[in-house]
Amino acid sequence: MQRTFEILSLAFGHEHPYIDAVFPSHNTASGRKIGGERLLAIKNSDPNTTFLKVTDTNTGEMIAQAKWNIYDGEVPKKAELGGDFWAGQDEKEYAQYLFREYLGPRRSAIEACGGHLVSLDILTVDPKHQKRGAGRMLVEWGTAVADKMGVVAVVEASKYAIPLYQSAGFEIGHHHVIDLPDRWVGRDKQTFTWMVRPKKAVG
After folding, report:
1. Residue 70 — φ and ψ, nearest 5°?
2. Residues 122 and 102: beta-carbon distance below 8 Å
3. Rounded CA gap, 164 and 149, in Å?
4. 189, 160 Cβ separation under 8 angstroms
């Protein structure tokens, strides 16, 4: 999962406070090694998670990745952010706060539909290989699963990804800004757009 996490880090850079907080030092070799190990742990422990990759058939290089969460009638246990990956307790609590707030709308959606939902958790393309259709392939895989199941698909979209998701049938729900408590005033606020793709009738 090392290349998976490297692509995540390269794509987000430092424009995503949530990623910076949850995966500290993700742009360093040691941070990426730890990040890859954390993704592998998720892959091995979460039965609702499917990791995907796109590989350049000419070079064999992995150029894009996605993590889809597929819920087929089960509301999972509420996820908590643990571990010992942060420089201090304040950094850990800041990451935990963003984690809870960022995933709040998704959690509400899962509970509201009784665990019948498909969620695009992460999708990133290596910046050197963007605009080649890899992201669209990863989106279409998940929307095909949603259509087969007859459920909605949801995603927390960055401003750059909104057009791609709209072209795949996602609709804008609302623009979300995570307000920070006074103790973290001055830090960058995380923003995202909550998008929902309506369910299709099962044929």
Report:
1. -115, 115
2. no
3. 22
4. no
pLDDT tens by residue, 100-114: 999 999 999 999 999
Spatial CA neighbour of 160 closest among 132, 131, 140: 131
Residues 127-160: tens digit of each pLDDT: 999 999 999 999 999 999 999 999 999 999 999 9
Rounded to the nearest 10 degrees, the angle between the axes of helix 29-45 and helix 2-12 is: 120
For residue 68, what is the DSSP state? Answer: E
Residues of the chain predicted below pLDDT 50: none
Distances in Å between the Cα of 111 and the Cα atoms of 73, 115, 168 are 10, 6, 24
Residue 161's Cβ-count burial label (10 Å; 0-12, 13-18, 19+) is buried
CA quadruple 136, 142, 143, 145: dihedral sign: positive
In the structure encoding, which two tokens stand for residue 2, read together?
């090392």
Asked whether the beta carbons of 153 and 196 are under 8 A apart, the reply is yes
pTM for this model (two decimals) = 0.94
User: Are 158 and 192 within 8 A, CB to CB?
Assistant: yes
| Contact criterion met (CB below 8 Å) for 81 and 96 | yes
- Taking the alpha carbons at both ends of the chain, their separation in whole angstroms is 36
70/58 Cα distance (integer angstroms):
31
Q: For residues 30 and 42, what is the distance between their CA atoms, to the nearest angstrom? A: 19
